[in-house]
Write a structure and sequence with these properties.
Elements (H helix, E strand, L loop, with lengths): L5 H5 L2 E7 L2 E9 L5 E12 L5 E10 L1 H22 L6 H13 L6 H9 L10
């Protein structure tokens, strides 16, 4: 039986995903029985009016018995979104800008054409999402 200190237990295996104002922490942790489970923590940065900032954190726990189903559903959901909407980010702000641009131009476009053009719009700032 290993004699891990609390600090070591926290650091079994970790990965960090930085995504704009959000950061995701993936951590392998140990149960009292020394089995492993996964925590995923979302930390989101909020800026206060005075320019200082604070973070809000949400944590989910995923245990071995749920891994297979969790991966299956996550893959199904992400595949569905890419299949339905492609992998380019469609931003509400950009769509509004896009419409405005076209309302002022002389050429008429159908909604379908607008959607196609918006999908190929790649200048997206992830902080705005």
């Amino acid at each position: 039986m290993n004699n891990y200190g609390m600090m070591e237990q926290e650091e079994i295996f970790s990965k960090v995903l930085r995504a704009g104002r959000r950061t995701y922490f993936f951590d392998v942790r140990a149960t009292k029985a020394e089995d492993y489970y996964l925590t995923i923590t979302e930390s989101k940065k909020f800026t206060n009016d005075d320019g200082s900032y604070h973070y809000k954190k949400h944590k989910i726990y995923i245990y071995k018995e749920d891994f297979a189903e969790f991966r299956e559903i996550l893959a199904e959901m992400t595949d569905y979104i890419i299949r339905e909407k492609g992998d380019e980010v469609i931003s509400e702000r950009h769509q509004k800008d896009f419409k405005k641009e076209y309302e002022t131009s002389a050429t008429e476009t159908t909604e379908e054409e607008e959607v196609k053009s918006t999908e190929s719009f790649t200048d997206v700032d992830f902080d705005d999402i």
